[in-house]
Amino acid sequence: MAEQAMLKFVSRPQSYPAKREPELRAEDFREIAERYAPPTAEDQAGRCSQCGVPYCSVHCPLHNHIPDWLRLTAEGRLQEAYQLSNSTSTMPEICGRICPQDRLCEGNCVIEFSGHGAVTIGSVEKFITDTAWEKGWVEPVAVGPARGQSVGIVGAGPAGLAAAEWLRNLGYDVHVYDRYDRAGGLLTYGIPGFKLEKPVVMRRVERLKEGGIVFHEGFEVGRDAKLDELRQKHDAILIATGVYKPRAIKAPGVGSGGVVDALDYLTASNKVGFGDQVAAYDDGSLNAAGKNVVVVGGGDTAMDCVRTAIRQGAKSVKCLYRRDRANMPGSQREVANAEEEGVEFVWLSAPAAFDEREGQVVQVRATGMRLGAPDASGRRAPEADPGNEFVLDADLVVKALGFDAEDLPTLFDAPELGVTRWGTVRVDGKSMMTSLDGVFAAGDIVRGASLVVWAIRDGRDVTERMHAYLKAKAKAAKVAA
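The chain above was modelled as a monomer; its predicted structure follows.
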């Protein structure tokens, strides 16, 4: 049966779920494409070549069993496909929506190399788990036999949520502390609904709560309790805060009104989507309606900002990026979506100054750039192109240059917590433990700003290390008794 269902990549063309028309999708924050209907999902899964060395799995940080659940999908065995997909990931339908598949699994698909177009792995992954939710196949969190030990997790983003579920599977009492009023981290407040609708995140969080994981929302370590106090309360601690410090722009006028940080802008928009009252949105400070918007940056966060501005009814939206299209860090699919929706990209350009009138930004003075010699990473470094200056009207400027680690030793009142020269938390490579006994760290706060799928992988890995530590701690306590 498998031979009949698979290897259809020559006779069956690649087909993604249809996107809504740009003028329609720009009017709301719904996801831009519906998911597959079952026959189409099965047909597309059947394009998989079942190659001997599955590069899609190799290049997935979670090493998902992609060819196997594609085969099961092609055979109509959707519940088994879901179970296999769910075995390596705590949130496959979220990864299916927001992973940059063009740089990971699909970008390394063998039939992509042959010129037949990659299997649409992300869309099938989304279909499988959304179907599982609808059919009632998603089971409650499996709680292992109680161990009498508790873990405190600081940060309710993807790394913290993944670790919370796996630790609960092992029978630990799990408490999650997060500064926001809703769990999910950037999944909830950083990523717009047109890429990840919020009920998709909230149903995952609710499932964890129903599994006995205790969430302490609106809780700031350092303000509501010092890190040492949490260490006294729990048998182990996991720091999974992510990185939230926005990278700065050094240019005259950067402190003018209307020059805002990307995360502030996106958080306000997402809160409004939840129905919250947001004063800075209502007064126009974090609202692009009727404004000339300039977004500075070329990553996925910048793409989120430009596309949000379109949906808020901006008069114009321009994106300044200092390199060219081929060298931008963001997903090319996101760039294409943004262009379809009316965003103008100004490649090889950077802000030189922000001019203001009565304290409010009115224009961006920009300079053209050119690509010079390669830098330490191998990418050609941008440099100013003299004589190529220009001006853009701007009522709102969004800085989207990425994120660095916050000063956690100071924030947590834990000066003994070791950090790297980049401010990320320093951990032992094997144990994933920090300089403090029983305190572990995982996700972006260790590796720097990265992908959600890597955060989930780190959450899985740190669970294994914490489990070994906690078992040894329990054994030592039993011997001492």
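The two ends are 59 Å apart (CA to CA).
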